[in-house]
Amino acid sequence: MTDHSVSAEFIASLKAMVLEAVEKEAPPGGLGDDEPLFGPEARLDLDSLDALQVSMTIQQRFGVRMPDSKETRRALTSVAHLANHLVQAGKASQ
């Protein structure tokens, strides 16, 4: 469930950013806010290199570093998790 303090525009911009970072097209029907980005249920079929690409893009765009791999995995569970992570880091437009 997405946090109501996160705007739909911000969620949409994060989806576009993630897809651009991993150089993939959105899956059929679009990428869901709570859809898993990694793991066996993920439709994008992303790997650890993709996670690195996304975390580097987040660092460049928002100035948020993700040095802790557990924190990175949690933040990249879904676009909604990423949005909430950035809000908590004080880097998101709410």
What does this structure look like?
- With 94 residues, the protein is mostly helical.
- It contains 4 helices and no strands.
Estimate percent helicity.
Answer: 40-55%
In DSSP terms (H or I, runs of 4 or more residues), the helix count works out at 4
Radius of gyration: 12 Å
Unreliable parts: none
The sequence of SSEs as H and E is HHHH
Basic shape: globular
Broad structural category: mainly alpha
- Quaternary organisation of the protein chains: single chain
> Percent of residues in beta strands?
under 5%
Could you give the distance between the termini?
16 Å
Question: How many strands, what sense, and barrel or not for the largest sheet?
Answer: none
Q: Give the number of DSSP strands.
A: 0
Mean pLDDT equals 89
In short:
It contains 4 helices and no strands. Helix 1 (8-22) packs across helix 4.
Mind sketching the topology for me?
Blueprint (H helix, E strand, L loop, with lengths): L7 H15 L25 H15 L6 H7 L3 H10 L6
Helix pairs in contact: 1-2, 1-4
Task: Describe the structure using short key phrases.
single chain; 94 residues; mainly alpha; 4 helices
